[in-house]
Recover the amino acids of this structure.
């Protein structure tokens, strides 16, 4: 937004034109904007549900719902899936809204540039994931799928993981990830992440109900094929059979954990590994067409301008 010529503040200034907020915004900011008649735009991504927060999920969703109904003038959702989930768990809303899918710096996240050697030998297949791991469904299907692939198709395969492990999986780096076919990098700085992604062969992803996963967009920008699920917003980001292979998922995953066919997951790893160049080129092409962060900024700019002019779009 600064590059587009706008002033941006992360603390509430004395004068401002519009309040753009996520759920963590202090209520004092909302009250200030309301008292001055300043438009409030709420950005919504994921919601809490039973399989994530158990019986606490209505309480965790309460602040988002309260802002949505009593404070915000306009909502921006990360994806169509996100809008549907919010309508289900926060209640249907008649507020005007738009969908703006996340963007990425295509000059930072690119297939060309510095690489590192992640392979133990020249022919080793590198399957990569970078995430903030908090739940078993984010990592257990990946471990099972890659292990199945190794035993059924190709032992010369390495799973490389980057990120932090907490909550349900806090013990994993000290236990499960010590196997000789797994490399654990730990948390990486954003500027270093593309180096490891472009040094890998594909990105594997098993998060359930993802609202708009940045790590998928970043991986695509680096030219990585995607192995994942037809879940959450994944079909809005990837094209199955073009830059990705996605396992069909039928259950919502809101009330019971989804069942993932790890044999099919392993088959997809094998199919992608035999078509790396084609899938890779399509991933970068789609990122350039859909996920340029400056285009994302221009979409926000257009929405904000129309809101300030009193023209509320529904898109």
């Amino acid at each position: 937004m600064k590059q587009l010529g706008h002033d941006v503040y992360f603390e509430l200034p004395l004068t401002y034109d519009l309040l753009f907020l996520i759920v963590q915004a202090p209520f004092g900011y909302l009250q200030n904007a309301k008292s001055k008649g300043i438009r409030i735009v709420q950005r919504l991504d994921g919601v809490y549900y039973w399989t994530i927060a158990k019986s606490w999920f209505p309480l965790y969703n309460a602040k988002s719902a309260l802002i949505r109904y009593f404070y915000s003038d306009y909502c921006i959702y990360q994806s169509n899936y996100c809008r549907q989930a919010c309508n289900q768990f926060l209640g249907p809303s008649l507020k005007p809204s738009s969908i703006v899918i996340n963007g990425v710096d295509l000059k930072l996240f690119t297939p060309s540039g510095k690489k590192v050697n992640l392979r133990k030998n020249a022919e080793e297949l590198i399957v990569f994931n970078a995430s903030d791991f908090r739940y078993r469904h984010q990592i257990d299907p990946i471990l099972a799928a890659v292990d199945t692939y190794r035993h059924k198709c190709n032992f010369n395969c390495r799973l490389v993981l980057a990120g932090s492990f907490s909550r349900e999986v806090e013990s994993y780096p000290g236990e499960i990830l010590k196997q000789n076919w797994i490399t654990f990098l730990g948390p990486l700085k954003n500027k270093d992440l593309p180096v490891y992604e472009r040094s890998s062969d594909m990105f594997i992803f098993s998060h359930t109900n993802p609202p708009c996963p940045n790590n998928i967009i970043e991986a695509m920008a680096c030219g990585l094929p995607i192995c994942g699920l037809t879940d959450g917003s994944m079909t809005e980001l990837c094209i199955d059979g073009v830059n990705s292979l996605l396992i069909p998922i039928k259950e919502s995953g809101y009330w019971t954990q989804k069942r993932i066919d790890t044999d099919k997951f392993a088959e997809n790893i094998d199919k992608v590994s035999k078509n790396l160049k084609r899938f890779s080129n399509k991933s970068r092409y789609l990122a350039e067409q859909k996920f340029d962060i400056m285009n994302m900024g221009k979409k926000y700019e257009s929405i904000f301008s129309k809101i300030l002019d009193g023209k509320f779009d529904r898109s």
